[in-house]
Amino acid sequence: MNTLDEADLCFPQFNSSYRKITRSPAVSMLIYITLSSIAVLTVVLNLLVIISIFHFKKLHTPTNLLLLSLAVSDFLVGLLMVFQIILIDGCWFLCDLMCSLYFLLDYGITSASVGTMVLISIDRYVAICDPLHYSTKVTQSRAKVCVLLCWLSSAVFQGLVLRDNVRHPGRYNSCYGECIVVVEYVAGIVDLLLSFIGPVSIIVVLYVRVFVVAVSQARTMRSHVTTVKASGSFNLTTLKSERKALRTVSVVITVFLICICPYYCVTLTGGDAVLSASSVAFVMCLFYFNSCLNPLIYALFYPWFRKSIKLIITLEILKPGSCEANVV
């Protein structure tokens, strides 16, 4: 009986060891294989997105720069899945500092992803609701500045939220092999407002407005009652292109909200007052799965992504001048 009890502990040599999550070997193996597969796909697919947008100059548009920011966050999520795989049985075998850093990175990347979604919503709002001034209001330089501010503010804010856990790693652990962080009540409420409720409200309001305008434009184009007045290169083809981009990012944002909402539902119910790795495993895996889905969505809706993948896989990008290739 003592042998069985010791086998259930993360560190049998310590009486105060954390107890493993008991599963059948078949279930554990299935979880390992599933999470490992998702992690590899997430890293590889998002790396393809990053290389595509970064390498090909034709893809250097404000909208794609925002998608690049999202791909970077998804890529990092794929790397973080290594820690989630380690935590499958509930045991944390690394040091307490690594536990705190893991949650800090997780919080920061999540916050940056949500912030990027808000920027994408604003980009589509301007593109559809004010298309004549889109090229002057939304530029590459402004997009770069917004992305940089989004990541910096996310890192600083989440650093403040988890400052006590980073300063005193393992402070709230009750036994060996446990990995938890404690978020103060006020800090948790502020984090909930700034990282979820506020951004989601902005996204919903903007997209309601965008869809109303998009429907109106579609009716106008079908009836041919009025023509789209434009200056420079803006025309009906441009409008159709913007609406196609709207459809794509709408799917991305919808899937994102579906995957991330469970995590914040746990927050709303007070379930993450003490965040243990085992208690949030499911919602975190759901968020991780979303990072794998985004590149697949691009592959379905964006011809340029499919063309870019072909050039990358065939190593055509190594040829001189390949960055000038017309993949659009």
How would you characterize this protein structure?
This protein has helices spanning 2-7, 25-55, 62-86, 96-129, 134-137, 140-161, 163-167, 185-223, 236-268, 281-301, 303-313; strands at 180-182, 274-276. It is mostly helical. It has a two-stranded antiparallel ribbon with strand order 1-2. The N and C termini lie far apart (66 Å). Mean pLDDT is 78; it is low at 225-234 and 272-279.
What is the count of helical runs? 11
Rg over CA atoms: 23 Å
The profile of the biggest β sheet is: 2 strands, antiparallel
**Which descriptor suits the 3D outline?**
globular
CATH topology: Rhopdopsin 7-helix transmembrane proteins
Structural class: mainly alpha
Biggest sheet: strands side by side, in what order?
Answer: 1-2
CATH homologous superfamily designation: Rhodopsin 7-helix transmembrane proteins
Average predicted confidence as pLDDT: 78
Number of strands: 2
Strand content: under 5%
End-to-end CA span = 66 Å
Helix content: over 70%
Order of helices and strands: HHHHHHHEHHEHH
Instruction: Tell me what the CATH architecture is.
Output: Up-down Bundle
Number of domains: 1
Unreliable residue runs: 225-234, 272-279
**Which CATH class is shown?**
Mainly Alpha
